[in-house]
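Below is a filled-in request sheet from our internal design queue. Each sheet records the structural input a requester submitted and the sequence that came back. We keep these sheets so that new team members can see what a complete request looks like end to end.

REQUESTER: design group, bay 2
PRIORITY: normal
MODE: inverse folding
CHAIN LENGTH: 82
BACKBONE (tokenized):
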């Protein structure tokens, strides 16, 4: 699993966050996606790598701007993750 953190410029409200989340969910098979207009950030949890170019195309189509991209391994935390 991977955690992809995106810097997103242009989101101004909760509806912007929902718009970004829906665009990501519709374009890629992801486990979880959350966005914050206050942090100017979207975090994606996915089983597979998603190329930066593919994400940039989706972000551009929404009218927002991708300002940063970081991918790292993700290990689920919790009681049953031993």
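RETURNED SEQUENCE:
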């Amino acid at each position: 699993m991977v955690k992809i953190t995106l810097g997103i410029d242009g989101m101004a409200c909760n509806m912007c966050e929902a718009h970004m989340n829906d665009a990501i969910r519709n374009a890629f098979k992801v486990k979880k996606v959350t966005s914050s207009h206050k942090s100017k950030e979207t975090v994606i949890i996915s089983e597979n790598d998603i190329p930066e170019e593919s994400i940039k195309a989706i972000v551009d189509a929404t009218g927002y701007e991708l300002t940063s991209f970081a991918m790292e391994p993700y290990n689920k935390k919790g009681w049953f993750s031993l």
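SHEET NOTES:
- The longest helix spans residues 14-27.
- The chain has one domain: 2-73.
FILED BY: M.R.
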